[in-house]
Amino acid sequence: MKQIGIFAAAIICLVDLSSCETPSFAPPPVTAELARTGARQHVEIATLREGRVLFVSRCIECHTLPAVSSHSAQEWPRLIDEMAGRANLKPTEREAVLAYILAVRTQ
Amino acid sequence: MKKFLSLWILTLAFSAPISFGGVRHFTFLYEAPTSARGSAELENWVTWKRTTDPARFDQVDFRHEIEYGVTDRFQVSVYLADWFYEADSEHSGFAYSDSAIELIYNLTNPVDDPVGLSIYGELRAGDRLVELESKLIAQKNFGPLILAYNATLEAVWEGNDLIEREGEFSQALGASYEISPPISVGVELLHEFVFPEWRDKEKIRNFFVGPNVSYRSGNWFVTVTALAQATDTEGEPDFQARTIFGIGL
Description:
The complex is a heterodimer of chains A (107) and B (249).
Chain A: H1 2-19, H2 32-40, H3 45-58, H4 75-84, H5 91-106
Helix pairs in contact in A: 2-5, 3-5, 4-5
Chain B: H1 2-14, E1 40-51, E2 57-69, E3 74-87, E4 92-106, E5 116-126, E6 129-142, E7 145-158, E8 164-180, E9 183-196, E10 204-217, E11 220-229, E12 239-248
Antiparallel strand pairs in B: 1-2, 1-12, 2-3, 3-4, 4-5, 5-6, 6-7, 7-8, 8-9, 9-10, 10-11, 11-12
């Protein structure tokens, strides 16, 4: 009974944590404004969307998702090159992830 | 055949490019994300269990598993072999236990969606053992913090002619915090309800709790968890430690 209590308390904390005013850890969605930023860099909105989906799904297979602002625009290409093999990203997918990150950083 | 398989695994392990099935932050819990399409990984598990009640008994379980991402949401794993070493005051030795196939389908993402969910199914067969296991895996990522919950239902048939039956429901909760890109530390809780012959007469409840640490580098990772029993169930381990070493193929 005591153990069920511990589990229940832990799950309540978990639900509480997800419902309170914590900052969003999800990377920014692809909005019209981000699409305009992408267009200035000759990147289509579909590529930005694909880049975001890959960023959110592939990177978390090994580590938690870094904030886009945690690295400079100069650092990101090298980082993504290092990770692309491990994340099984094809060259076009690698480009899409980089395009999304750079568009967010530029915004 | 064995030689060919070993050669194939070694060739894959050291040939480029290397893709990775994913890092485990926990060893007694599964996480919601599945392996990327086309990626493969070899995992080796070692679990040491020490039981002292009613008599001192040590068992070390080994598992060799290959994981493969069929699609971005669907992962298949094959347990090539589960085997163990056991030692008590009268005898000791190694024995093969079973092999298994495991399927995981990812439903939602733990970063984007309110809760990341996956469903899991496993069929295990071995020497006088058949086991079916299903699991609901829930996970939420809060920046560097990962929270995971698993609810598991197991049905086991074992012994001569598989006449001994047992059911088990277990739930596990884990937290893992990434203190730097290669290192995470956390805690795991495991709560088991065991039903011999699918009855609850004996009211067997086991509760384990303990810390974990995970380290990753290049195309490999290692995660270790040590759990102590907080209940006092006879025949269940007082202490168990599990290590999973994974390498991308």
